[in-house]
Amino acid sequence: MAPQSGMAHAGGARHGVRHPGGLQVLFKLTWIELKLFLREPTTLVFTFAFPIVLLFVLGEVFGNQSGGTDERVFNGMGAMNYYTPAYIAVVTMSVGVIMLPARLTGYRGGGVLRRFRASLVPVWAVLGSQVLAALVLSVIGSVLVAAFAAVFYPVHFPDSLALLAAGFVLCSAAFAAIGTLLGAVMPSTRAAQGAGLMLFFVMLFLSGAGPPTEVMSDTMTRIGEFLPLTYGVDLLQAAWSGGTWDWTAAIVLAGIAVTAGVLSLRLYRWG
Amino acid sequence: MPPVITVEHLRKVYGHHVVAVDDISFEVESGEIFGLLGSNGAGKTTTVECVQGLRTPTAGKVRVLGKDPRSHAGDLRGRMGCQLQESRLPDHLKVWEALDLFSSLSPGAVDWQMLIEQWGLAEKRNASFSSLSGGQRQRLFIALALVSSPEVVFLDEMTTGLDPAARRIAWDLIEKIRDRGTTVVLVTHFMDEAERLCDRVAVVDRGKLIAVDTPRGLVVRYDPLEQVVFSCELCELEWLEAVPGARSVARRGRRVVVEGTGPLLAHVGAALVDHGLAPDDLRVIEPSLEDVFLKLTGHLVED
Questions:
Q1: Residue in chain A nearest B82 by alpha carbon
Q2: In whole angstroms, what is the distance from residue B210 CA to residue B200 CA?
Q3: CATH for B247
């Protein structure tokens, strides 16, 4: 029987390849995730336009007198020099806590994950594709934020692009890991969206991306110390203005990325 | 030819005491449509998931194409295909993207362009998943199940939620899969579906396998009585009890029901003609799989 022998041959070719094209699967899933993202206007607007709108409001209100009139706020660096790196951190946070959990819980509730599992897609490829897609989207969002600030306000060029890039990757990794963890533990898309939005706004207002740290009350500052975004803002601001590496912030973010990453792999559920 | 699937004394306990599957054994032969029939929660899906290697059995032995699906997942990748109960794809995923993605998941996948034609999805290749009708989604899921040119396909509650017309079409599709030489494991709680499609049926109830046979075999074995029915005004019908094979004669209004073993219709017909009667609605009611199921499990499938 010809078809049988053909099958046996194909089976033989499969033998010994435990994860056939594992990386190829990862990249394909990532690519599909990105395409799906572009087809969802609401997420698209929230992720890309919302930080720019906020930055626009802040820019119009505070302007950017670099080393300006009031040295007591914005680390003395000028409002937009202060806010631009902060909003790059906000973009990574928004992708991580809002987009990722909703996506993963939606896939679980709809049985998309079970479908993947039945085709033996490894867990790391499912979560990895989400993290990679988040990274790509964060890059695009950040470039848009930086370009907007550079074009409309006299924002200075980052003092260290290399440190900024390194800080950005750490930031993105930490928030993507938080996002996959939320996606793993949240029971439904609604719950994930609720939790994500609350985290988003709390962090937005208390981590230095809203009122500058100097005007915050002690209570606000203390809460801020528990929020990952505070460290993301610190890390990116240090790299942007001054070209320095904030080791505390970096270690905290790396710790978050590893812990949340490991936890989400452990707590991951297919259905 | 060795069986495609061998299940021996399979047992699956969730937590500490929820016994989902209790000592189930069966074999699936190459090229057949094998049905797992039972009500919701009977343990069908758990059984199939153990066979697919998606769950670890608490006890027992499972072999698919001669291999343990847990320890040889890599070897079996692509040799099994499946369509899942209540599964979806991302709303905005296009038909061709789904096929492309799933074909990249297994080496030696067939050309999905061919499948898209074969399953009537060519016009929908750029349509998003959410825009597809129930029937179109089913066809897409079948195409996805077949994209790795598997030797065995699992179809779990494939026609649940489809309207009667779409169900008929789905049945034709399942027969098409078998006709191309692929072994089919069909999980269903629809009696008519199992009766119409399956070469052999395993009846599962409360985690146990109560019978395995051809649909006809099950009927003959467990509910061999057939009924011959006709309308008649006469009251005196005792002579019908003497007809060969007849076990009982009952009257329900104008309707007379003779129950017994075959060939009952011919004998009753002959007796009626001998007595000068020729009812124009004389017919036989054969026991269905549903009757057998009721007899075997003591409850209806929907209960």
A1: A118
A2: 13
A3: 3.30.70.980
